[in-house]
């Protein structure tokens, strides 16, 4: 391109001879001004082209695709940063055409344009990754739990290191490979500086490969005070929004080295467990007498059970010729056993209990506080508020139904009980 430069110089040189400093010096500055004006002009052209043509074409193309691609492409300055790369390349090309490669101005412009191109190449890559991340997150709502953010952050980190090495190599005029070979001596320091990103990358790969955690999961990790929804999985940290709306930040590698509870299985199953006991006062447990049987036979939930069981028991006792005058002889129904069957029937007929999951009413080992009767069942919803209401309604009914079976809840003596006893002794 020296011919083009020489022809231009021949044209403008007569006009510059009358200026102080000579035509040669003013010619160089004239070329620099021309390059600057051309760069500004190119910036305006690219801006208008992207705004009026590329945007319309992208809108037409993305309208046929699923997801909000247009928003993702234009929300991360992708085309703006790419246009800056083009501008840097054009400025460098113009300097090759119009300037002497041995001149100081050429070297300055070439160095500045090289750094400019490298910077905006890196930023353009960041924008591409951010666009990919945005599209991925919109598609992830369909069940894709791969935590891509940590992988993308790793790519950004490696790209930044590589571009930084290339920029330094251009500055000192050495090959990037020479700088890379020198990093071997600093490997121990590099491992120490980038320990958390490396551990975070390893943790992210293990979490994703084993499908252990994803954004939106309910995470419980008492060691770090975390109990809530996962809102972000980054390269080195995992953010959890607790139920009290506080944010807990957990090191990503801690999810591999320590144990945590992920409630996703409960959410996906469609049912949430009820596992709660009522403590029955053991002194209230007894055999059913005629009066209590007559009352319970009228119950819709336990009446049929009593009829069938009484027939079986009477038939067996007659077959064995058992003397039923003695209370402990033969088989008899108890109020606690009848109550357990009543609860089973009650839960089986409850509209909010999941019928395809485990349903039990079981008796646990007695303690000094009474006999625990445990309700073990699952609701047909995983919503926290609905679950608590269903559980409360069930136990409201259980507490209210206990007197019908002549059973009592165990309660430790309170201050009011002591005062009542004291008053009765005085009287």
What this model shows, in words?
Helix content is 59%, strand content 11%. It is of the alpha+beta class. The chain folds into three domains: 2-144, no CATH class; 207-263, SH3 type barrels; 272-415, 2-Layer Sandwich (Alpha-Beta Plaits). A five-stranded antiparallel β-sheet has the order 4-3-2-1-5. The chain has a three-stranded antiparallel β-sheet with strand order 6-8-7. Helix 2 (23-62) packs antiparallel against helix 4. The protein is rod-shaped, with a radius of gyration of 40 Å. The model has no long low-confidence stretch (mean pLDDT 78).
> Element order, helices and strands?
HHHHHHHHHEEEEHEHEHHHEEHH
Q: Give the biggest sheet.
A: 5 strands, antiparallel
CATH fold group of the largest domain: Alpha-Beta Plaits
Helix and strand content put the structural class at alpha+beta
| Spatial ordering of strands, largest sheet | 4-3-2-1-5
* Mean model confidence by pLDDT: 78
Number of E-state strands: 8
Strand-residue fraction?
5-15%
Q: DSSP helix count?
A: 16
- Which of globular, elongated, flat, extended, rod-shaped describes the shape? rod-shaped
Which architecture of the largest domain does the CATH hierarchy give at level 2? 2-Layer Sandwich
Counted up, domains total: 3
Q: What is the CATH C-level name of the largest domain?
A: Alpha Beta
Q: How widely separated are the two ends?
A: 121 Å
Q: What's the alpha carbon Rg, rounded to whole Å?
A: 40 Å
Helix content: 55-70%
Low-confidence stretches: none
Pfam family, one: MS_channel_3rd
Organism: Reinekea marina
Keywords: Membrane, Transmembrane, Transmembrane helix
Protein name: Mechanosensitive ion channel family protein
């Amino acid at each position: 391109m020296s011919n083009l430069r020489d022809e231009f110089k021949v044209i403008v040189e007569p006009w510059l001879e009358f200026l102080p400093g000579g035509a040669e010096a003013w010619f160089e500055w004239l070329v620099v001004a021309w390059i600057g004006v051309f760069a500004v002009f190119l910036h305006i052209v690219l801006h208008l082209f992207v705004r009026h043509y590329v945007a319309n074409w992208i809108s037409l193309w993305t309208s046929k695709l699923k997801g909000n691609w247009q928003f993702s492409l234009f929300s991360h300055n992708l085309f703006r940063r790419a246009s800056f790369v083009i501008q840097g390349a054009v400025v460098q090309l113009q300097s090759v055409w119009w300037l002497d490669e041995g001149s100081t101005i050429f070297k300055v412009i070439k160095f500045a344009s090289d750094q400019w191109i490298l910077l905006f190449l890196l930023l353009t890559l960041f924008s591409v990754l951010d666009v990919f991340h945005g599209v991925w997150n919109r598609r992830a709502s369909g069940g894709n739990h791969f935590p891509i953010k940590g992988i993308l952050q790793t790519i950004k980190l490696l790209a930044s290191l590589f571009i930084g090495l290339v920029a330094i190599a251009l500055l000192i005029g050495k090959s990037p490979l020479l700088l890379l070979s020198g990093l071997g001596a600093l490997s121990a320091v590099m491992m120490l500086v980038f320990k958390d990103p490396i551990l975070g990358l390893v943790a992210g790969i293990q979490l994703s490969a084993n499908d252990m955690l994803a954004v939106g999961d309910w995470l419980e990790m008492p060691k770090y005070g975390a109990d809530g929804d996962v809102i972000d999985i980054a390269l080195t940290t995992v953010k959890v929004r607790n139920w009290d709306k506080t944010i807990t930040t957990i090191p990503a590698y801690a999810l591999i080295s320590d144990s945590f509870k992920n409630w996703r299985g409960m959410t996906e199953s469609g049912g949430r467990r009820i596992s709660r006991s009522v403590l029955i006062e053991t002194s209230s447990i007894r055999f059913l007498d005629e009066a209590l049987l007559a009352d319970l036979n009228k119950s819709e939930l336990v009446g049929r059970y009593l009829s069938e069981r009484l027939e079986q028991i009477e038939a067996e006792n007659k077959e064995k010729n058992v003397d039923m005058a003695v209370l402990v002889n033969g088989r008899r129904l108890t109020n606690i056993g009848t109550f357990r069957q009543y609860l089973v029937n009650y839960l089986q007929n409850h509209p909010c209990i999941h019928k395809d999951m485990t349903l039990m009413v079981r008796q646990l080992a007695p303690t000094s506080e009474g006999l625990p009767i445990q309700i073990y069942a699952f609701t047909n919803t995983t919503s926290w508020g609905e679950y608590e209401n269903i559980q409360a309604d069930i136990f409201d009914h259980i507490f209210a139904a206990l007197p019908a079976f002549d059973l009592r809840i165990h309660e430790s003596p309170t201050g009011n009980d002591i005062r009542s006893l004291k008053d009765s002794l005085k009287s």
